[in-house]
Amino acid sequence: MSRWRPMGLAAVALLVALASPGYAAWAAGGGTGASGGNMTNEDVPTDEAGVVEAVTAGDDASAGGGSAGSAGDAGVSDAGADAGAPDADATINEDVPTDEAGVVEADGQEDADEGGDADKTAPKPARPALPDPVFGEGVNEDNLVNPQQKPDSSFIYDTAISDLQDADSYLNDQTVQVTGEVVGDRIRAEFDSGYCWIVLQGSDKGHSEIPVFMSLDATAVIDTYGAYGRKGTTLQVRGTFHLICPEHEGLTDLHADAVTFVEKGSVTEQPFDIGAFLPGLMLVAIGFIMLIVFHQMREGQR
Amino acid sequence: MWQRFTLYDLRVIGHYLGTLLLFFAVLMALPLATALVFQEWEPAARYLAAIGITMVAGCSLRFLRIEPGRLDRRQALAVTGFAWVVLALFASMPLYFSGHYMTYLDAIFDGVSGLTTTGASLIVDLDHLSYADNMFRFAMHALGGLGLIVVALSFGLFGRGGGASLFSSEGRSEHVVPNVVQTTQFIARITLVIVSVATVIITALCLFMGMEPTRAFLNALWVSTSGFVTGGFTPMQLSIMYYHSFPLEAILMVLMILGSISFVIHAEVWKGRPLPFFRDIETKTMVLWIGVMAFVFTATLALSPFDDMLALLRRGLFMIISAFTTTGFQVVTTNQITTAFSNGAFLTLAFIMAVGGASGSTAGGIKFSRMGIIFKSIVSNVKEALAPDSARVVVSYSHVGKRVLTPEIVKEAMTVFILYVITYVIGALAGIAHGAEAIPAIFESVAMTSNSGIITSVAGPGMPGTLELLYIFQMWAGRLEFVTLLALIVEVAATLVPRPRARRRS
Q: Could you tell me the membrane topology recorded for this protein (chain B) (predicted)?
């Protein structure tokens, strides 16, 4: 009897999947892909260079394609700062492994993420019901959190850049994840060809900054470097923080492992407004008149 | 009986301050031109308005005395002393309205810091600052580094009146050539040549690093200027760490050292006479002092997490040079100084900054010459103690020729030394009273008074106003080397206090 139980569960799961509205809509559309009607990366609109056109996160998810580079909403590329040159070119759609939400994965992350390149036609295999350590019953199969996960202090999620700027030895050599605006320039690393430095600025009151060491290829996701009148691309960088970097003669830096595109940069155009110059022009004119009067008075005294 | 300023004195002083303000308005045309070239319209309008206000104020002051006559020494002291603060007040206008300062006092702080070449900055979000504002910051450095009066004299702004009095009131008593105007022109010329050469080399380096040509040139120009005049402002928030380039750091180290050498020695070398440089008391003191302090600094750092040899060489050496030249460039973060450096290294840097560079240069601090003279005076005392009663002990030293150590020279050196030490202590106590840790408070106080500008955890945007005012005073006092400032304070105080007879009548 117990031999048939998994098969029965699989059958139920298949029925549930077929009855779901998403599947029905997809089936009604008939699919657009060449093979079996499934949406593939080739179907995602790209420009001549193969760069994915800007789409919303929702569109990405429904199309199942990846959006990356400067046009994507959530492109992640392997920065490869510690493990050599990155394999993924974030701007070329065909080469980039993506998940359902269009997130470009760092090398070696496919296995970790759920449903990354899974064939949409195949029904999801039923998950074994894990015993709940508290209530002793099977947990909801949609709950992906492993309740038996042990605490791990080697990874500090979403650290503020200001915390890194004021870090003590506790944060040294820790894997951290920071989000900030790219400012300044891309500076080529002096002894490591293929690598460069960028500066990430936090959104805190003091505008804290941290230099980030990353591969040149990973900077492809940066569309704007922040400066006067320019808001730089916002990136999320995961990497190893060094209070005194042994590779860079004691510099405080962050070696990027994965770089995620968060928000496009922007340029603020300053319109020329003659009205703004009028007070200055008037004051300068008064100043010149006073100068002339002064010189005439001085000549008069002589 | 203290001398008082008469109404005539005040009118003459006002006239010359007005002349300096007009010159400052001309300097503001540089950021205006930069803004127009790069189509930064908001800064352009801001600088035009600032030029207008400065011109009107300058002309109004000039009307106080149409024919000012020749400046006497007291008036020259007052003009020089007030000039640094008055100009900083006008500089703070365009700076504050850039929107990069938390308070107006922060903008004044940066104005004083820029002009006195301290290099400490309370600016917020420097990396989004316009080219025009940056150009203004470095123009202030250039003007202050060479000396407001030196630059004004080299342009002949004061005519024939009181050139020598003004020149010496700015802490410069040595003439490269007998004529003051020619001396100032020589100083300006040598600066132009060195900064131009450095700009070309650093531009090429920045281009190689991948910077855009415009940014490469401007960054090179600014750090070259700041390095040679031992200022310390940088166009990027991460200071020199931003460039990640050892060749650039090496060039800046050479620039800083050149800037901390007396212009008189520069002139001797330019004339093909390098020997005076090696015989000079300042050079000998520098070698001895920096050698000892570098050893102590390295020893203390080696016991800290900063124990890597390459890190010590690259970061440690740069920081020592930046500290003794009182430039204030950084290749370690403020956080590293306070957390990764040992307390000993932290304090050693403060000692290095306290002594500073050579007199007659752009560097601040007590100066090598005074330290050398005090050391020679100790030697002289020991010799006198050991010599027979009938013997007359004569101690000489070399500083652009052989000179005999006289009690007057020793007194001057000791007075300035003591005044520096007192100011360092007062600043440190004030920092501690504001809740700072002792060592950062000492460090910050020394950095301000010696015009070094390496700031750690005490000075920052929106800092307590009382401490900020004290730091402004320290920068001002350090740049004027106290004597001018003290004379000015005494004269102003004596002028404000009513005469005893007048009190009796009332």
A: Multi-pass membrane protein
Q: What is the rounded average pLDDT of the residues B424-440?
A: 94
Residue B358 to residue B361: CA distance in whole angstroms: 6
H/E element holding B366?
none
Strands A209-215 and A253-263: parallel
**Which amino acid would we find at residue B25?**
A
Which range (B26-30, B85-89, B264-268, B354-358) has the least confidence?
B264-268
Please give the structure tokens belonging to residue A253.
């830096």
Q: Which of residues 223-262 of A touch B (CB under 8 A)?
A: 226-229, 243-244, 246, 248-252
Q: Which residue has the higher pLDDT, A142 or B344?
A: B344
- The minimal CB distance from B52 to the residues A186, A273, A280 is found for A280
Of B285, B325, B48, give the one whose Cα is nearest residue A280. B48
CATH architecture assignment, domain A155-267 = Beta Barrel (2.40)
A165 and chain B: CB distance < 8 Å anywhere?
A: yes
Q: Kindly report the number of other CB atoms within 10 A of residue A284's CB atom.
A: 20
Phi, psi (rounded to 5 degrees) for A146: -80, 110
Tell me what the pLDDT averaged over chain B comes to. Answer: 88
Identify the pLDDT of residue A35. Answer: 37
Domain boundaries of chain A, sorted by first residue: 155-267
Q: What pLDDT shows up at residue A124?
A: 55
Q: Collect all residues of chain B within an 8 Å Cβ-Cβ radius of residue A281.
A: 48, 52
Q: How confident is the model at residue B4 (pLDDT cuts 50, 70, 90)?
A: confident
Interchain CB distance below 8 Å, A277 and B53: no
CB A202 within 8 A of CB B229: no
Residue A145 confidence (pLDDT) = 59
Sign of the dihedral through C-alpha B4, B6, B9, B15: positive
- What is the b/e burial string over B439-467, where b = at least 16 CB atoms within 10 angstroms of the residue's CB? bbbbbbbbbbbbbbbbbbbbbbbebbeeb
pTM: predicted TM-score of the whole model, two decimal places: 0.79
